Amino acid sequence: MKRGHIGLLCAGHLVTDINQGALPAMLPFLISGRHLSYAAAASLIFAANFSSSIVQPLFGYFADKISTPWIMPLGMLLAGLGLAAAGYASNYWLIFTAVAISGIGIAAFHPRGAQLANNVSGEKKATGVSIFTAGGNVGFALGPILTTPLLLIFGLKGSIFLIVPVLIISIIFMIQIPSLLQKEKEESSKITKRTVTSEEVKDEWNCFLKLLGPITCRSITFFGLNTFLPLYFIHVLNQSKTTGSTALTILLVMGAIGTLIAGRLADHYGQRNVVRVGFGILIPLLIIFVNVHTVLTSMILLIPIGLTLFAPFSPMVVLGQKYLPNHMGLASGVTLGLAVSIGGVAAPFLGWISDNYGIRQALTCLTILPVIATIIAFILPKPKIDLLKVKQVQAEA
């Protein structure tokens, strides 16, 4: 695994997902500046994620069929331009359209990026994919850190500054694409010579479909917290917008740390075990969080919640790629796109609950999801491609 290439993919993921992290931080400003209801604001999360969920598997499908390295820098630019335009839009439907365009850009980057992260990581795939995934988590965390001060100083038009990071990294990407593709070719050649190739094992579609269960549960839990955590601190705990943004940042920063730790653990102890433990510990943490009423305790609880909420994610991405070794781009597009974005699609329903019953009740609804995810995680079988590798090693010994 060459860390320079993984680092570049991580940086691309970071600047792309800054825009996903920025959108929830913009919601309080859009609510006050454009007079939106909670449900209307949550529907913007739906717009970004629904547009992403529809097209991301298609980008993954074509990543398996044709070489499309240019799609990654293009996706970065669309992600930044769309969200920047949302701050300038004068009415709700223009905002809705702008964030949908940003979602399409995000969808364009992820499948090929995840596929490359897997392919250039050699034998340490969980570690490589976890570094790539952590870049996205850091981007989510930086989104509110960058956005809140900009909007406080410049108003909604401060969103224009979100174009800068994607512009810089997309240019670097265009320069480095030949090197990335060469490294991918070299690693594929090494694997073909010394271990099982994807053509030797059939895709396990039934296992992959089961995996979508915990991925979906995690997605809804994450987007529920990502959307309503700042609003919870502002409107339920009576804190400032800055405090709400800080709470979201704590969750996402701890998530990035949890992702990196989980990648190394998954390479050592197995992806399924990390997924099971992560979801299992998350269950009591969420129950406690929605039942405490002090700011300090809530903030402290976000530390272990961030670690355990994000720990299963990169191991599940790798599991998806292993279940579909002959359609790795499609597996990446679905695990990072269609199933993940279901959380954004569910956001309007949580917004409706918030409008009618309160934000605390909306967050309480999330506590059942880790239970479902844990149950499904325990029935996931070991990928056949791993079993064949074990047999090959035993035969060579």
From TrEMBL:
<dbReference type="InterPro" id="IPR036259">
    <property type="entry name" value="MFS_trans_sf"/>
</dbReference>
<feature type="transmembrane region" description="Helical">
    <location>
        <begin position="220"/>
        <end position="237"/>
    </location>
</feature>
<keyword id="KW-1133">Transmembrane helix</keyword>
<feature type="transmembrane region" description="Helical">
    <location>
        <begin position="40"/>
        <end position="63"/>
    </location>
</feature>
<keyword id="KW-0472">Membrane</keyword>
<feature type="domain" description="Major facilitator superfamily (MFS) profile">
    <location>
        <begin position="5"/>
        <end position="385"/>
    </location>
</feature>
<feature type="transmembrane region" description="Helical">
    <location>
        <begin position="131"/>
        <end position="154"/>
    </location>
</feature>
<feature type="transmembrane region" description="Helical">
    <location>
        <begin position="274"/>
        <end position="293"/>
    </location>
</feature>
<feature type="transmembrane region" description="Helical">
    <location>
        <begin position="160"/>
        <end position="181"/>
    </location>
</feature>
<keyword id="KW-0813">Transport</keyword>
<keyword id="KW-0812">Transmembrane</keyword>
<feature type="transmembrane region" description="Helical">
    <location>
        <begin position="92"/>
        <end position="110"/>
    </location>
</feature>
<feature type="transmembrane region" description="Helical">
    <location>
        <begin position="70"/>
        <end position="86"/>
    </location>
</feature>
<dbReference type="GO" id="GO:0022857">
    <property type="term" value="F:transmembrane transporter activity"/>
</dbReference>
<feature type="transmembrane region" description="Helical">
    <location>
        <begin position="330"/>
        <end position="353"/>
    </location>
</feature>
<feature type="transmembrane region" description="Helical">
    <location>
        <begin position="299"/>
        <end position="318"/>
    </location>
</feature>
<dbReference type="InterPro" id="IPR011701">
    <property type="entry name" value="MFS"/>
</dbReference>
<feature type="transmembrane region" description="Helical">
    <location>
        <begin position="359"/>
        <end position="380"/>
    </location>
</feature>
<dbReference type="Pfam" id="PF07690">
    <property type="entry name" value="MFS_1"/>
</dbReference>
<dbReference type="GO" id="GO:0005886">
    <property type="term" value="C:plasma membrane"/>
</dbReference>
<feature type="transmembrane region" description="Helical">
    <location>
        <begin position="243"/>
        <end position="262"/>
    </location>
</feature>
<dbReference type="InterPro" id="IPR020846">
    <property type="entry name" value="MFS_dom"/>
</dbReference>
<protein>
    <submittedName>
        <fullName>MFS transporter</fullName>
    </submittedName>
</protein>
